[in-house]
User: Fold this.
Amino acid sequence: MATNYSTLQPIEVAPSPTGLRIRLGILDMATLTRRELLIWFRNPAFIFFTFIQPVMFVLLFRYVFGGAIPVKIPGGYVNFLMPGIIAQSAAFATFGTAIALARQLQKGVIDRFRAMPIARSAVLLGRLIADTARLAITVLVILGVGYAVGFRFQNGVVPALLMVILGVALGVTISAISAYVGLALKDEESVGSFGLVWLFPLTFVSAAFVPVSSMPGWLQAFANNQPVTTVIDEMRSLALGGPLTLHAWQSAVWLVGIAAFFVPLAVRAYRKAS
Assistant:
């Protein structure tokens, strides 16, 4: 007796619990990313001050200090300056991460998030993705201002794109530190003060604005062996041409190491936050 297979109905297979959790976690993360970006876009003052500080640094160092700082690279001081400005601006932009998380803790927003049926990782990941988007926009604005005052890439399109990506990666990595600081200190004023303590030495005692060789010997030891200098040297090589391999793997080791250390700390601080 023949079987009429046309009457058979397809059997719906329910997604596995693990697959469902991952999909819901991604949706939660996308929702919280959108929330953070909407807060930013709907606050014109915040957007203005996000961009005005790096623009001021570009103009200040280009036209006030640039003539007094001799460098021997193609294009002069402005080409030396721009990778440092990008790195410094990416680092300073992470202030917003620490302060925002501390403010959310004080106002009970974190407690409400933790009480909601959402993925625990979505809050921090959503914040990190939103910060990445903001950093990318900030870097592009800085490059636009840099081109207006004479900066030019000397090494082709692909290295230029890699320089931008490396600058954003530095900012995202430092955001992991800022997230931990904001969740651990929990107080907006304390976070703002503490951020100056560790960010200023990293950015100013580096190769960002002056050649390290112009510093005293004891200070060169620190400046040459810290992550911001390593990343800036690689960004300059990408922008202007030069040896890439050494600073590339050193930058990767620094960024991966910092993320591997501080991301778990930030997650633990978030779980304990109240």
Observations:
- The mean pLDDT is 84.
